[in-house]
Amino acid sequence: MSLRHRVPVSTIMTQKIVTLNCNDDLETAERLFKENNIRHIPVVEGENIKGMLSLTDLLRISFADGAYEDDSDVETVVYNMFNISQVMAKNLKSISSGTTIKEVAEILAHNEFHALPVVDEDKLVGIVTTTDLIKYLLEQY
C-alpha cells in the first residue's frame, strides 16, 4: 500500500457544510444532526467560525444518564436552559484546505476532537472528520 503523501485535505473534506449560528437554539441543532445524519456542526457568524457543536456535547446535556433513543422526545426544558455558545467547543484548531491528509490524521490522532474546520483566509470552506479520514484510507486498500 502506498499512500500519496501530499494529498490535500480539500480532496476529502465536506464542502456542503451544515452550520448553526449562536442565536439558534439547541432544538434546531438536534434537528440538523438527525436530518443530516452528522455528528459535528460548525457555529458561524457570517463566514467566520466561532465554535463547533458536536452531537456528543448535545447528548451530554440532554441526557445526563446516557439513555438516548433516536425517536425519544427530547427534554426541551433542558435545551432551554442552555444556548449554543455555552455548549459548543470554542478553542478550535483549524486547518487550511492545503493541509495534507497525513497532517490532518496526525492532528486528529493526538487530540480529543473528531472534526476540524477547514478555513482559508478566515472563511470557513469545509469540515473534515475522522470518518472522512477512515473512508479515504479504506479507498487506498
TrEMBL record:
Keyword terms of this UniProt record: CBS domain
InterPro entries in UniProt: CBS_dom, CBS_dom_sf, Diverse_CBS-Domain
Any Pfam family hit: CBS
Record-linked PROSITE patterns: CBS
Occurrences of domain CBS (ranges): 13-72, 88-141
Protein name, as recorded: CBS domain-containing protein
Native species: Maribacter cobaltidurans
